Amino acid sequence: MMNIEKLFQIQKELDMKILKEHQLEGKDLVPRKILALLVELGELANETRCFKYWSLKSPAEKKVILEEYVDCLHFILSIGLEKGFLYLSFEEINAPETVTGQFMEVFANITALQFNQREENYTKLWKSFVKLGVGLGFDYKEIEESYLMKNKINHQRQAEGY
Predict the structure, then answer these.
(1) Statement: the pTM of the whole predicted model exceeds 0.90
(2) Which among 81, 123, 119, 125 is positioned nearest to 102, based on CA atoms?
(3) Alpha carbon 109 to its chain's center
(4) Which percentage of the chain shows pLDDT scores above 70?
């Protein structure tokens, strides 16, 4: 099981560093975070190639797809922190019928959250995102490990003026 409280705490440290560094304290960044999440989710879909029915090219390596997945996770956690939605749970989640359909569900849930920033919509987004991860073949341990690695890279990028 992923330690979600730990991930929220680690994300909070990165977010606070970014807010301070870029003088963004007190600003509502949720719209920008939602757009960033949509872009990152599109990048993830692109690496899986699950929708590219016209192409014979294989998906990216699992490692690349996992990195894109945790890029999305960073923004989901960051949105939860900004809105105070910190009570996410893990339940047994079955793989989706299709990965393409699951991407569409996650996109729809992000859009729903954009227009109505209620905790219920955030929870639906979370569950659909976790289900997408299951559909992509990831387990909680590798998601958490990849998140921690990418978080270190994000801190380094901030230190280097990314």
Answers:
(1) yes
(2) 125
(3) 12
(4) 100
